[in-house]
Structure formats: C-alpha cells, structure tokens
Automatic annotation (TrEMBL):
Short name of any one Pfam family annotated for the protein: Rib_5-P_isom_A
Keywords: Isomerase
Organism in which the protein naturally occurs: Bosea spartocytisi
GO molecular function, one term: ribose-5-phosphate isomerase activity
Biological-process GO terms, alphabetical: pentose-phosphate shunt, non-oxidative branch
Residues the entry annotates as binding substrate: T28, G29, S30, T31, D83, G84, A85, D86, K96, G97, G98, G99, K123
Protein name: Ribose-5-phosphate isomerase A
Length: 233
C-alpha cells in the first residue's frame, strides 16, 4: 500500500469521530484533503456540521464539496480539528507547516476542544527535527529577524541552517497571511519546548511549526494497520 492510500485510511478512521452538529476545524495538506473529501460525501448524504478551514486551499476544497463553512469570528469554539502533520513524536509533539499553513492551523487547533492528527506512520519519529522546522516571519526586517532566530535556535541547544522558502519558480513563498517562511534544517530537536519558547520571544516571528500540547491523539496508518496514539474517542 502506498503512502497516499495510508493517508486515506487514517482520514477514514478520523471520520468516525465526527458527530452531527459538530463544529469542525479542517486541516491542510494531502492527508487532510482526503478527510475533507470523505467529509464532503457525508455532507452530501445529509450530515449537518459547520466547519472552519485552516487555509485558503482547504476553504476552496470544502466549498467545492458544499460543506457548510464558517469563520473563527462567527464560530470561535470548535469541537474537533482533524489535521495532518510533518512529524509526530511519541509524546504527540508535532512539526507542522510543510504546506505553509502553520499559523492558521495553530490558531484553529488552539480554538478546538480536541485536535486529532492523521498521517501515514512514516511521520512518527522518536525525536523531532529531521523535517525542517517552518518558522513564519513578517517580511519587514527579514535579515534582522533571521539573525535573531539563529541566536534563539542556538540558545535552545539546537543548530542548523535557515533557508527562506521559495516557490518552484524561484520567487519567495508567501503564506495565506502574507508572511515569509524560514525553514530551519536542524536534524534533531532535543528540547522542543525550549526551542518553542525561544522562538516565541523573537520579534518578527509570527509563529513556528512546533505544536506542543495541542494534539489529543494521532491516527497513524501503516502496512500493519492503524496505530492510535493518545486519546482518540
Ligand atoms: O502546512 C501544512 C500542514 O502543516 C500539513 O498538515 C503538513 O504539512 C502535512 O501535510 P501532508 O498531509 O501533505 O503530509
């Protein structure tokens, strides 16, 4: 079974958690896309829910499937958010933002009573950091912010190169919020909490892709079946 089929299996299991009347946060990325597709089918069959998207891409997908959409202004408290991740560790700490949606994803996850991660089991790692950590920054003062981010990373005990994320055509990638992303190639993050705290203090950093204490559970699909971490039901 290939990774995409595994992602779809994890998404299908997450659909079991959805109940009529729920307020749902919809994640971003290839795994969340499967969840939104499956949810769209349930809505077509009569399921009544209201959803908030974590990106313009997910919003467009959900609207194309006639899923009723709201905003966090109209619906500031959500029951459940289902989202993918770039890395998950055994303590349910995550790296997110490979699809540049980390800021809205974190806001939506924080507004949710429960966030469940869906992924193929290749995303489960003993230690975070092999996947480059996305750090969303405002364009103003980029070089000064980059230096301050580098100092914060070193102070937390990590080390590695910072790369400004580009689009395939070579132009600088802009997030849905109009920000840049610095990808920190750290190889290993021994103390994610320390790094998160250090990055939170840098002016110009809007958000970073370390999600700590946000995920209640994870549904990880592998060749041997589904692995459930944390609280799923
Ligand atoms: O910004 C993007 C998100 O954090 C995604 O949830 C993450 O990159 C995982 O995406 P995928 O399911 O495509 O691997």
């Amino acid at each position: 079974m290939n990774a995409d089929e595994l992602k779809k299996q994890a998404a299908a299991r997450a659909l079991d958690l959805v109940r009529p009347g729920m307020r749902l946060g919809l994640g971003t990325g290839s795994t969340a896309k499967h969840f939104v597709d499956l949810l769209g089918r349930r809505v077509a069959e009569g399921l009544e829910i209201i959803c908030v998207a974590t990106s313009e891409a997910t919003q467009a997908q959900a609207l194309s499937l006639n899923i009723p959409m709201s905003t966090l202004d109209e619906t500031p408290e959500l029951d459940l958010t289902v989202d993918g991740a770039d890395e998950v560790d055994p303590q349910l700490r995550l790296i997110k933002g490979g699809g540049a949606a980390l800021l809205r994803e974190k806001i939506v996850a924080a507004a949710s009573a429960r966030m469940i991660v869906i992924a193929d089991d290749g995303k489960l790692v003993p230690r975070l950091g092999r996947f480059p950590l996305p750090i969303e920054v405002v364009p103003f003062g980029l070089e000064a912010t980059r230096r301050a981010v580098a100092i914060a990373i070193t102070a937390s005990g990590a080390a590695g190169e910072l790369k400004l994320r580009l689009r395939p055509d070579g132009s600088t990638l802009l997030t849905d919020g109009g920000h840049f992303i610095l990808d920190a190639h750290l190889g290993a993050i021994d103390q994610p909490e320390l790094l998160a705290q250090a990055l939170n203090t840098v002016p110009g950093v809007v958000e970073h892709g370390l999600f700590i204490g946000l995920a209640a559970g994870a549904i990880l699909a592998g060749a041997e079946g589904l692995k459930l971490l944390g609280r799923i039901e």
